[in-house]
Specification:
19 helices; mainly alpha; two-stranded antiparallel ribbon; 2 domains
């Protein structure tokens, strides 16, 4: 009886299990940098601003536009993206299972691909565009033969979220049976999705996206090949990026020898996932490769007759699943001590007790000093050398940023042109409050060019002259504007355009 019911309940069971695996930490922790960037962008769009033209944005427009919908309809909240993420995690895992079955994997191997994908999607949970792009592309692969035009359109839509995943997906769909028709539709839909943003601000869009590629290498990290610990669980976590690279090489070697047609379908997505990971091999860049590789390994193992090769492919798949499951088990069995985020937009989301206490003291002070609708400015410890910022504070305080720059990127915020532009914006808005985010995450040094000072301290000198410290709440130093503006430190007259200043 149970066996007969399994096919009927398979889809809802797999969706529910993956959602549970992803969702039990839905209210845990906040992300000052990544979460803040996306929610700030969504809020700006809900307020009528355009990415690229009105605020600096080096990503595709799809994700903030999607997240702006619940902000516009239901109001700002830390919860909306989390609910969407859990649903997408479950969908991606189910699609991985179905693709494995479509590729010839038996039930057991397909379930292994599902588990690996579900665990990979579940953590770390950020509001980034990877889940949407993966769901669109994996779904398109399932539709490639039956509905090539729809499959192409889905890949074109994915380009607005992650251009490289959408583009690779379009090639994969064409190879899988969609042909030139699907590729043409993908190109047309991608062009239509990006055209409004390009039409509104062509120069800004190209500068923020294509131009950013020239300084993106400042944030790259080397691939770590040392575990740094004798703890097997920690060693697996530390070495997991290298394990994914090795597993990809294993699959590529197998594909070169066996030359299955399905390998040509998987190769474009594996290639972009590998490049994405190698650009910055940390936990935030694992997901695209881990999900697609899990499917590819399951299909490869299903068609491999040599015991040694099959065992190696199965071992690689098992490691991907084990890594994700082990991390989720640790988070389930050893939950951290957390306290409610003291903001009207938190909706039950929790952070560390120390951070909650600091925010509980800081946010009322901001509310008392800055009327609703007026801006504040949140700054890292210094602007000549930056790592990450805390744009989430704008969201929690429900106060706008008077500059175009929520993203504090090395090679951008560290340049004289951008600092002069920000100074001009600050001179016009004259926010009453400055908050310096002095968290260790903002001062950590990475083994890349971001650790070096640009030598540009224009904005730091300006802020030191215009603001004085009032109080310190944990990592947040509250400062208040004092004095009248001068013409020093590259300050521009209020009539000067900030964009002209940058040029």
């Amino acid at each position: 009886m149970a066996t007969g019911r399994w096919p009927r309940w398979r889809t809802p069971a797999l969706l529910a299990a993956a959602a549970l695996l992803s969702g039990f930490t839905i209210l845990r922790e906040i992300g000052p940098h990544d979460e803040g960037l996306m929610l700030q962008a969504a809020q700006r769009i809900a307020d009528g601003q355009w990415p690229y033209r009105d605020f600096w944005w080096n990503y595709g427009p799809g994700q903030p536009l999607l997240l702006a919908i619940p902000v516009e309809l239901l109001g700002p909240s830390l919860l909306w993206w989390r609910i969407l993420r859990v649903a997408l995690d479950a969908v991606v895992a189910l699609l991985a299972y179905r693709l494995a079955r479509r590729g010839g994997a038996p039930e057991g191997l397909a379930l292994g691909a599902w588990l690996a994908a579900a665990a990979a999607m579940a953590w770390p949970a950020t509001p980034g565009p990877n889940p949407v792009a993966l769901a669109l592309v994996l779904g398109a692969l399932l539709l490639a033969r039956r509905r090539p035009w729809l499959a192409g359109a889905m890949c074109g839509a994915a380009v607005a979220f992650r251009p490289e995943i959408g583009g690779a997906g379009a090639i994969a769909v064409a190879v899988a049976g969609g042909g030139w028709a699907s590729l043409g539709v993908a190109a047309a839909v991608a062009a239509a999705a990006l055209a409004p943003f390009f039409a509104v601000a062509p120069g800004d869009m190209l500068d923020d996206t294509v131009g950013f590629l020239g300084v993106q290498d400042m944030q790259r990290l080397p691939l770590d090949l040392t575990p740094g610990t004798a703890d097997p669980n920690k060693a697996l976590e530390a070495l997991f990026p290298a394990i994914l690279v090795a597993a990809t090489a294993l699959w590529a070697g197998w594909a070169a020898v066996r030359r299955p047609r399905w390998a040509l379908v998987a190769a474009p997505l594996l290639a972009v996932g590998l490049l994405y990971l190698l650009g910055r091999p940390d936990e935030f860049h694992l997901v695209p490769l881990a999900v697609v590789l899990a499917v590819a390994l399951a299909v490869a193992a299903a068609g491999e007759w040599a015991p040694a090769a099959r065992a190696a492919l199965l071992a690689a798949l098992a490691l991907i699943a084990l890594h994700g499951v082990e991390r989720r088990a640790g988070q389930l069995l050893r939950p951290p001590a957390l306290a409610a985020v003291p903001s009207s937009v938190a909706d039950g989301v929790r952070t560390t007790p120390a951070d909650a206490a600091a925010l509980g003291a800081l946010l009322p002070r901001i509310a008392a000093l800055v009327p609703p609708g007026e801006p504040i400015f949140v700054a890292p410890p210094r602007f000549d050398r930056v790592s990450v910022g805390d744009p989430l504070l704008y969201v929690l305080a429900q106060r706008p940023n008077p500059t175009r720059y929520d993203v504090i990127q090395p090679g951008i915020a560290t340049t004289a042109a951008v600092q002069r532009e920000m100074i001009a914006d600050l001179e016009r808005a004259r926010p009453r409050v400055l908050v310096r985010w002095l968290d260790p995450r903002a001062t950590r040094s990475e083994p890349n060019a971001s650790a070096r000072s640009s030598g540009v301290r224009l904005l730091d000198r300006y802020l030191a002259e215009r603001y004085e410290p009032v109080a310190r709440f944990g990592p947040y130093r509250l400062e208040r504007r004092v004095g009248r503006p001068s013409r020093g430190h590259g300050v521009l007259p209020a009539s000067t355009s900030a964009r002209d200043a940058a040029r």
